[in-house]
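Appendix B, Record 12. Input sequence as logged:
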Amino acid sequence: MIEGETAPAVVPANEASWEDLRAVFGRGGAAKCGCQRMKLGDRDWFGMPVDERTHRLRDETDCGHPEADATSGLVAYLDGEPVGWVAVEPRRNYRRLRGSSVPWAGRNEDPDDPGVWSVVCFAVRAGYRRQKLTYPLVEAAARYAEARNATAVEGYPMVPRPGQNVSWGEMNVGSRNAFLAAGFVEVSRPTVRRVVMRRSVNARN
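Logged structural output:
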């Protein structure tokens, strides 16, 4: 957030309306992905029409149904306007993540551990970017997971090289600084630009 600005209100996606979430995604890359690539894996995602991805997202978020037992992310509001989204679920729900060798390099860990949740994707509405909205979204996502018995929460941000220009789309995984600000620590650096960040409940008690 820019200093002096009001912090956003962040709510589970099922407490937001579908129209509000669509406003955050807009018509660009986030809308076309439907936050499904990490859920499906590359092969199934590429072969799925955009409309079907959108339908899956609507089912998973259960927007407009605050009584729902579960959802797949959180929505941020500034002065009543929907401005941001973060995807957070148990790690084992993300097929692409589980099937990739990158997050597991140097780690001896069960990808299907039900206690570990993952923060995998952010979307910030056009006109509200570069205001550090991912910072409160990371914190809210971690708290949401921990309230649902997560033993640890992970993120997989990109760390650009000095002087490197990175598009907003590439940074949909979040920045290392946003995770650091929320109390995550770096547990591995499997590639030059990718780090695994983790916030363990036991470490905070």
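The CA atoms of residues 10 and 184 lie 19 Å apart.
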